[in-house]
């Protein structure tokens, strides 16, 4: 099954804001084994919207439209979709009463222009929006399923969670031949080098490859037709074995989230010494901490430019650590582009020296991201040694 995402809005087409909605919707569709063929952004213009719908619909079975459902004169999506459907707009009293109640609850004056958000194509199905005033709607024509969603990202995610995701999975995606996606996040090898390794591993299969560099990682993406999963299994195993030296995580798994929310909570207290990342480690671990979850841990940054004593400093922080406190330590880069990491707890202490596959060069900001990711991955391995 194939899909397209159409985004409506001058603020998007002009570059004033980044089109994050198209990226998020596409990822959700991909999880449902629906192949996204294209993204298209047009202005708040009736003719442009209608032309875009006519351009996209012959090539897909699903069209996701975001934006243009607001109360102002430039919100024209419902009018354009109605014209494509060759239908008429009808007023929905229930949507109006919901808008009045919501605005009154928040102390916002109800104005006549809000009525515009209550008109929907007669043949469409209205989808309630628990996060805003603009209800979404669903329509169908000539084999194409069309969802029209409001523009605010929070509202799109709420509507998707409450209605669309399950419906797509159960009513549309079920029984339709699709693609299965496999993803590996690799560290320490270039995109081009990984590409050669991957293509050699999957040669002769029906697998399709793709790559996405996101510093410091390279994501390897492989699609398999569902009917070929059995015969492609050996190629997928061969691929994973070939990239294992650089493999950090798979699919949506995040190594920092695993450390912070799964491993560290097993310890009564945690202290982290950052002697070399210049704040990158604290930002990364903080970002991985889910609000209200995870352990309480402290990060002490003592970054110094004197790198030749980095290994000695790491050893001291671990040797002097309270045995009842899990202590993690990250050292500074030495002149050879290597650094020491270690863990200590309950009389157990282990360190290792990590080396960069690349020269730091002038882009130390990028290099420190690599340093932090490799350190976190190594800590998880060392902590497994403690448990084992």
UniProtKB/TrEMBL annotation:
Residues 4-171 form the MoaB/Mog domain. It holds the Pfam family MoCF_biosynth. It comes from the Bacteria. Gene3D superfamilies: MoaB/Mog-like domain (3.40.980.10). InterPro entries: CinA, MoaB/Mog-like_dom_sf, MoaB/Mog_dom. This is Competence/damage-inducible protein cinA.
